[in-house]
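Reopening this ticket.

The earlier resolution said the output was attached, but the attachment link was broken on my side. Pasting everything inline this time so it's all in one place.
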Amino acid sequence: MTCLPDRPIVLCVEDEDDLRRDIADELIEAGYEVIEARDGGQALELMRTARPDLILCDISMPGLNGYEILKAVQASGPDHADIPFVFLSALGDPREIVQGKRLGADDYLVKPIDYDLLLATVQARLRQIARIRSAKPLKSAGIDAAALSAAFGLTPTEARVAKALTQGRPLAQIAIDFSVSRTTVAFHMRNIFYKTGTRRQAELVSLLLQVQIP
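Inline output:
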């Protein structure tokens, strides 16, 4: 069972037109739908109307750089927290890789792009997300809000939100089910991320699903 569309959407953010087109062509040939953005501003504008399944993003660009785009995506709300984010860069300095990882990037590809590696990375990250989403209904029955609260020091409300996440409920549905605003759910999510030491929703859910009832 997969929880991704037949043609996953990849957002490619790259200011070099020829390279961006080459990457898009490779992805399209491999069966993906591609949204192209030449800079960070255009990328964030596109994400207002389209939700990609994965983001490929250059680091060094005019205007917003890749790190700033990643921060903007993270700040745009927990609904985007499980989108894999892969950096593209000509920088081979390990410190750049470490910085990207610390900010929450899922992977890092160095230019010139090895397209076989790129396709393998995209496939692996999407497969990982699909496994996590598929596992939620199967494993969440054994998740207990009290156990989550004890494991991570969550408040009762935060624990209920965390449990709802493991059941695969989207944030908009959680807000409706709990009769609260999306802003309130986002507030609880920020606290849950902080208390669990996670940055992205996929990482959070994977951690929550490991908690067993005492």
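Reporter confirms the inline version is readable. The chain has a mean pLDDT of 84. The two ends are 30 Å apart (CA to CA).
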